[in-house]
Amino acid sequence: MKVKLIYNPVSGHGRFKNHLDYIIEKFQEAGLQIEPFRTGKKEELDKMISLMNEKEYSKVLVAGGDGTINQVVNCLLKYNITLPLGIFPVGTANDYAQYFNLPHEIEEIVEILLGDHYTLSDIGLVNERYFINVASLGVLIDISQRTNTELKNSLGVLAYYLNGIGELSKIKPVQIRVNSEMLNYDGEILFMLIMNGKSAGGFNKIAPCASINDGLLDIFIFKKCPIYELAPLLLAVINGEHINNLNVIHFKTKELTVDTKNDVGTDLDGEEGPLFPLKVTVIPKKLKIIT
Length: 291
Ligand SMILES: Nc1ncnc2c1ncn2[C@@H]1O[C@H](COP(=O)(O)OP(=O)(O)OP(=O)(O)O)[C@@H](O)[C@H]1O
Description:
GO terms for molecular function: ATP binding; ATP-dependent diacylglycerol kinase activity; metal ion binding. Belongs to the diacylglycerol/lipid kinase family. It is a single chain. This protein has 291 residues and is α+β, with helices and mostly antiparallel strands. It folds into two domains: 115 residues, 3-Layer(aba) Sandwich (Rossmann fold), CATH 3.40.50.10330; 156 residues, Tumour Suppressor Smad4, CATH 2.60.200. The protein has nine helices and 15 strands. The protein is elongated, with a radius of gyration of 19 Å. The protein starts with a strand and ends with a strand. The model has no long low-confidence stretch (mean pLDDT 90). Adenosine-5'-triphosphate binds next to helix 3 and helix 7.
């Protein structure tokens, strides 16, 4: 049986490739043939997955951060491939992997990925595209997408967001309209997070109440607020105390739509997201994650 290993050579500090020989050895010992694929252009990943014969593989392993997993999952589901998914958390933040408490130590993670213990995971769908951990829109998105992997590696995740937060004062709030069976909102916001997992951008207390397989998304709307309230709000987010903040609206739902007339960026797991209007749903327990 074969195991497809898709690795991003630049994720995190780009050190994953040093472990390839060890990984191949361990899987070979278990009678499994590792078939590596190095990510590069999105079209190449799509083509490789389109040619995969699911029956020849026992699992798909991904080495990278959330952006890499996002791209792989989108391609796998496009071609209806439902193999178990294993993760080497070698990105910068690894928010999705962190949900499952996956270890970073290579020996430990190989042990897990050789095993057959799984946790089912919901995934979100925005228009035609899937997200594994978080969909977001508003000002922070622009900051995160403009920060290249190299800079992220050197600054660290929190640092680059904190760096970016300085830009908040320069950026105008945007008018959005949110409709769902749980809540309707029409007003000015700074940003909005649609969470499947618990953490985003390395902030690990964003959605402590979220569950990855409850069939629901946790929505956080950060409303327009005076500049002097931004620093306390950021502190509250870091400490996971923002849910009761007057500038924050939180609710759970299985679907919503979001629209705006402004020019607002969207983001799926750190990758540039789709255009408005957004129709967001959750597909319960769609992924089988090796844990
Ligand atoms: N060979 C490559 N060279 C340069 N960039 C690449 C290559 N392969 C993939 N990428 C890019 O890497 C990005 C994904 O990085 P990823 O999110 O996995 O890592 P990260 O940013 O270090 O981690 P995290 O999302 O956890 O912060 C994608 O935008 C993808 O286009």
